[in-house]
Design a protein that fits this description.
Elements (H helix, E strand, L loop, with lengths): L5 E5 L2 E5 L18 E3 L2 E5 L2 H12 L4 H15 L12 E4 L7 E3 L11 H8 L15 H12 L4 H14 L1 E2 L2 H9 L1 H5 L2 H7 L11 E2 L2 H19 L4 H14 L1 H12 L6 H5 L5 E3 L2 E4 L2 E4 L8 H10 L12 H21 L10 H4 L2 H8 L45 E5 L4 E4 L48 E5 L2 E7 L6 H13 L5 H6 L3 E3 L15 E5 L4 H9 L3 E5 L10 E6 L2 E6 L6 E4 L1
Parallel strand pairs: 17-18
Antiparallel strand pairs: 1-2, 3-20, 4-12, 4-21, 5-6, 5-13, 6-9, 7-8, 10-11, 11-14, 12-13, 14-15, 15-19, 16-17, 19-20
Helix pairs in contact: 1-2, 2-4, 2-5, 4-10, 5-9, 9-10, 10-11, 13-14, 13-16, 13-17, 14-19
């Protein structure tokens, strides 16, 4: 660089003069950790061991899908307080040659033999914690379907890190220890859970080695089923599906349904045998030239599109990302989106959801006019009328009756991208403190029934074989037809809020993903929470204390009731992201959890 050194000559010899050399530019960190860069592969997840497992599987010859499935299943081993193999796992995948991302719902169905009237009679309007919330476990079918359709390694190869960590154990981190301590009295009621997480009668502590031999045995059963199928001459894909059949109709299913029957919960072998994951195209909206793909209305995923459509009408690039204006807009758009979520979202197999109208730009233009920059909505607004933007009439949006109580934060996340153009995004969930471990299997049967409503008029009301309206919602972003970002977040109803704030920082404020993720965040509580009993805190907002004091003062003046959280608090989600761009393959991870990004 000009001026960095001086060239001298003496006695016929040229050299760089040390006396005239200038110092290099000063380096200053813009974030707590660097964004990672590679050429072949990038991965980010909510736990370091899962990220390392994904990289290990990629290095064995896998692609982004193999690595993503491996990391996702490892998350169920090392973050059992956030997700488990018997839970849910919505997955989004994009491969070279696909017109749009493929979406695997990874969401179980309510037992066929239980109606809302039955349930209300059984529990007098309550929803007990335990097996009484159980739906068909969908995560195994989702992981194995993704692997069979889009991976290239065997199931046994992909399961290898999970088996090792479950069988040999891993050091417990403070988050897992804190959850087990908090729920210790509950876990003591369930013998298999107590044996695993309360060894010698005491909760596992940070630094203890957690061994899960029954979970390792389940993984080995699935891998052995695959090996036997391969020996019979089945193709790789057929052999993986044979392992899936073992879980849903073989001895594994018999153990699972037998245990539930002993607990008087009628999730039957027919419920298991008839279950199939849904495979569909992911809906999308265009935001500033980028196609943002999200989960369907069986989840809260379309809230991301509604929020982005509303925000697109504001010049966010001219708004300070730490200002009251930015956080006020983030809060107001999520309230509008939540009103339509509770007004219309539900399992499309049972509910007519006006999704095209909800995601239309014209509808966003109409709803945006309700936002006042000087005053916050004091509570969740009323739902709108998206039907006319589909050219038809329909039922008015439901107005929910909210309850009181608290929900338990859970969920994990993993995303990957590789140089072949594959992208993977998955949000597994259902923690092991919400129900008993099934003896001999080491898993909890999905507790996602807690996101059904006991209000029969609600679009997400309980019905036989209906899917609950799910909070986990992975996302992929395409630019000119190719995947550029895979991103997502755990955190119940904070997920969509964290995802949208981080994406706006990336696209509107020009931050790299690491800076976008670490930027201070807020989260609105001013709508009914998805989990029963659907707590509702009108006008309330959580804010990280790292936002400027002048911003907090102005938000209060506009009518937001603030509750302060520590900087980099998991209370506002934990975003992970990977990127494929001219800079290579990049990864970023949120310091709000034990997240890790790697690239090669």
């Amino acid at each position: 660089m000009a001026g960095a050194f001086a060239w001298s000559e003496r006695n016929g010899r040229g050299y760089i003069s040390s006396g005239t050399e200038t110092p290099p530019p000063a380096l200053a960190a813009e974030s707590t950790r660097p964004i990672v860069r590679g050429r072949r592969f990038a991965i980010s997840s909510t736990h370091d061991l899962a990220t390392l497992a994904g990289q290990r599987v990629y290095a064995k010859g896998g692609n982004a899908v193999d690595a993503g499935v491996a990391a996702g299943i490892v998350l169920t081993v090392v973050e059992p307080h956030m997700c488990n193999f018997g839970g849910v796992a919505p997955i989004m995948i994009m491969r070279e040659g696909m017109a749009a991302p493929e979406l695997i719902d990874g969401l179980g169905r309510w037992p066929a033999g239980i109606t809302l009237q039955d349930y209300l009679h059984m529990f007098d309007g309550d929803m007990p914690i335990g097996v009484e919330r159980s739906v068909v476990p969908a995560a195994p079918a989702a992981w194995l379907t993704a692997l069979a359709r889009h991976g290239r390694l065997t199931l046994a190869e992909v399961l290898e890190p999970a088996i090792e960590l479950a069988k040999e154990g891993f050091p417990v981190d403070p988050g897992l220890s804190a959850f087990v301590n908090h729920f210790a009295d509950r876990l003591r009621r369930w013998p298999a859970s107590a044996a695993c997480f309360l060894p010698e009668g005491r909760p596992i502590a940070a630094g203890d080695c957690l061994v899960q031999p029954e979970l390792a045995g389940l993984f080995e059963t699935l891998a052995q089923t695959e090996r036997e199928a391969l020996r019979r001459g089945d193709s790789r894909q057929e052999a993986i599906y044979q392992a899936c059949d073992e879980f849903y109709s073989g001895t594994t299913a018999e153990k699972l349904t037998g245990f539930l029957a002993a607990q008087n919960w009628p999730l039957t072998m027919e419920d298991m045998r008839s279950y199939k994951v849904s495979i569909e195209s992911a809906p999308s909206v265009n935001y500033r030239g980028y196609d943002v793909h999200m989960s369907g209305p069986w989840s809260q995923g379309p809230m991301v599109g509604i929020m982005l459509n509303l925000l697109e009408g504001f010049e966010l690039s001219n708004i300070d990302p730490q200002s009251a204006d930015f956080f006020h807009l983030c809060s107001e758009v999520v309230k509008l989106a939540a009103a339509d979520r509770d007004g219309y979202f539900g399992d499309p197999d049972f509910v007519d959801v006006p999704l095209a109208g909800l995601l239309s730009k014209a509808y966003a233009d109409e709803r945006r006019n309700l936002i006042r920059m000087d005053q916050a909505f004091p509570e969740m607004p009323l739902p709108g009328n998206p039907w006319r933007h589909e050219g038809r009439d329909g039922k008015a949006g439901h107005i929910p009756r909210a309850g009181k109580g608290v929900g338990t934060p859970d969920t994990s996340y993993v995303c990957t991208v590789d140089a072949e153009g594959n992208a993977f995004s998955a949000t597994p969930s259902d923690h092991v403190c919400g129900g008993p471990l099934v003896p001999g299997l080491g898993i909890v049967v999905s507790q996602r029934g807690a996101q059904l409503w006991l209000d029969g008029a609600h679009p997400a009301a309980m019905q036989p074989r209906k899917r609950p309206r799910l909070t986990p919602n992975p996302a992929l972003v395409l630019y000119q037809g190719r995947p550029v970002f895979a991103f997502g977040s755990p955190g119940e109803d904070m997920q969509t809020q964290a995802m949208v704030q981080a994406l706006c920082h990336r696209l509107d404020h020009g931050m790299n993903w690491q800076r976008a993720i670490e930027a201070p965040r807020i989260g609105s509580l001013s709508f009914p929470w998805s989990y029963h009993p659907h707590m509702y805190r009108p006008g309330q907002m959580v804010v990280e204390s790292s936002i400027p004091a002048v911003t907090a003062t102005e938000l209060t003046r506009r009518g937001h009731g603030l509750r302060s959280l520590p900087p980099l608090s998991y209370g506002v989600g934990a975003v992970c992201a990977v990127e494929s761009s001219g800079e290579g393959l990049l990864g970023a991870a949120d310091p709000r959890r034990s997240c890790l990004a790697l690239a090669w």
